[in-house]
Structures are given as structure tokens and as C-alpha cells.
Amino acid sequence: MPLRMLAHLGDAVFELFEREREVLTSANAQKLHKNVVRRVNAVSQAAILEALMDHLTDAEKDIVRRARNMKVTGSRKVDQSAYRYATALEALVGYLYLTDKARLTEVLDLTL
Fold first, then answer.
1. Above 90 in pLDDT, residue 71?
2. Side-chain half-sphere of 107: how many Cα atoms within 13 Å?
3. Cα(49)–Cα(96) distance, rounded to whole angstroms?
4. Using CA atoms, how far apart are residues 54 and 68, in angstroms rounded to an integer?
5. I need a labelling partner for 6 at 20 to 30 A (CA). Which of 54, 68, 85, 99 fits?
6. Residue 59: its pLDDT value, please?
């Protein structure tokens, strides 16, 4: 599957993971939304990926490297480097969602 499609899928999976986590802990919908938006953005996702790198397998790092290096068109408000790392995280999440859900859970648990 092309990396762009993996990133598209991973974006949805990561946001769903964040929403599920917040539903269990947030007092109201406004707080839930605020907390999810705080983590589901390019800058936060780039930081999350950097923190995960030491925990990834070589195959996972290869997905990240390839996705980070593909041409992306991001927001002018966000640093291009952060946008590329966020796309790489999303591609990794999409890849793990399709290939190894147990590993996906392990990786996502490391983001907490």
C-alpha cells in the first residue's frame, strides 16, 4: 500500500485512539476536544514520533524514514520538518493497524 494511504489511515486511527483515551478521562465534551486537538496536530505528533524512535524495530524505522522523506504539502503555519515527522508517525500507525494490531497497541501505549 502506498505510504500516503498508510498515513491517511494512520491519521484516523491515531485520532480515534486519542478520542477513546480522552472519553475515559475527560469530564465533558469541551475538555475532550481540547485535549485531543492538543495531541492530534503536526507539532505534537512530531514530538511523539521522536520519543518513540528508540522503541521501534528496524522495519518500523524504515517505514518512518520512507514516509518522512516523501514529498508532502503541509500547512504554511507548521514547520515542514514537523509536518513530515507527523506524516511519518501516521504512516507507521497505518502500517501497524493493517499488519500487527498487538504491536500497534504497544506503540500507542508508549505515547501516553
1. no
2. 27
3. 14
4. 16
5. 54
6. 97
Catalytic residue, from 11, 54, 100, 109: name it. Answer: 11
- Percent of the chain residues past pLDDT 90, beyond the cut: 71
Helices of type H across 26-78: 29-39, 42-52, 58-69
Q: State yes or no: pLDDT of 41 exceeds 80.
A: yes
Write the single-letter amino acid at 19.
R
Q: Which three cell numbers stand for residue 97?
A: 493497524
Domain 3-110 superfamily per CATH: Ribonuclease III domain (1.10.1520.10)
Query: Which stretch of DSSP H or E encloses residue 53?
Result: none
Q: Across residues 53-74, what is the average pLDDT?
A: 92
Where do the domains of the chain lie? 3-110
**What confidence score (pLDDT) does residue 95 get?**
98
Does residue 11 carry a catalytic annotation?
yes
Residue 60 to residues 24, 30, 36, 88, 94: CA-CA distances in angstroms? 29, 35, 25, 10, 11
